[in-house]
Amino acid sequence: MKLLISSIVGLVWLTLCSAHNVLLPPYGQRCFYETLNKKDELAVSYQFGDRALESTEQLKGDFVVYGPHNHEVIKAFRQVSHGDVRVTVPYDGKYEYCFSNENSGSTTKDVTFNIEGIVYVDWNDPKSDTLDGAVKQLARLTRELKNEQSYIVIRERTHRNTAESTNDRVKWWSVFQLTVVVANSLFQIYYLRRFFEVTSYV
Fold this sequence. Notes:
Elements: H1 2-14, E1 15-23, E2 29-36, E3 41-50, E4 61-66, E5 73-80, E6 82-88, E7 93-100, E8 109-118, H2 131-195
Antiparallel strand pairs: 1-8, 2-7, 3-6, 3-8, 4-5, 4-7
Helix pairs in contact: 1-2
């Protein structure tokens, strides 16, 4: 029992995972930092969205991971709506990852993201094939499932807004068509009455 408790406590300390939601400034960016050791894994899953509830657009942005030496670009994704990025860091240092809105003046664009810092474990080590290792793997799979569910929720909101907007347009187009049909019918009745009207002269 003590082994199980110590394994869970160790897992909490070794694997860091948190979810965030930030508003991106117009033509600006938001950056975050992680201090990692060689062979640690930085995993970020993200989704660009719109805080305006009536929005039907799938917004896009840039995501870039910078290394600690000379601010070199480790990975970059331009004009994407979502992503799931995993980077195994080549050396120790302070890594920076940024979400960019530099190509857009949107004031309601935000990004929902999950960040994980996974400490490197040598699986060739005989001690790694333990309950602790199994718990870590299970926790990682659970986090991936949770991240996927968060992504699906945001996509569902965007698609629902699109469907409601389309239904609204169809409704008003139907009203317009009905108005045209009624007006045409009244005009035909009036024209036929005038056509068959008998004019009498005294």
